[in-house]
């Protein structure tokens, strides 16, 4: 059962805090981070907590999420793998020629 209308707040890497949005009928909210670093999302579930019988602010959920920049390693792999294979074939052929002579 999704939580509809739950307000989600975020603490950004620079320390600022702001409202991200409210959950939709699927219980989802989307967020596009503007900076890399550690983001923390905070939501307060309404109702009673297990420790207290009377209604209070509710249970607070804190979720850390790390945003990292785009990795360019795949570009290196695209370059290094073919070059490595060419060097391997070249060394094998050189070894065969040396053995044959």
Radius of gyration (Å): 27 Å
| Number of discrete domains | 2
Q: Characterize the overall form.
A: rod-shaped
Q: Major β-sheet, in short? A: 4 strands, antiparallel
- Name the structural class: alpha+beta
The average pLDDT is 85
Number of helices: 1
Give the amount of beta strand, in percent: 25-35%
Tally the beta strands.
Answer: 4
In the predicted model, the low-confidence regions spanning at least 5 consecutive residues are none
C-alpha end-to-end distance? 77 Å
Instruction: Please trace the helix and strand order, writing H or E for each element.
Output: EEEEH
Q: What is the strand arrangement across the widest sheet?
A: 2-1-3-4
Characterize the quaternary organization of these chains. Answer: single chain
Helix content: 25-40%
Task: Summarize the structure in words.
The chain is built from one helix and four strands. By secondary structure, it is an alpha+beta fold. The chain has two domains: 63 residues, no CATH class; 31 residues. It has a four-stranded antiparallel sheet with strand order 2-1-3-4, with no helix packed on it. The longest helix has 28 residues. It is rod-shaped, with a radius of gyration of 27 Å.
Describe, in short, the structure shown.
This protein has 101 residues and is of the alpha+beta class.
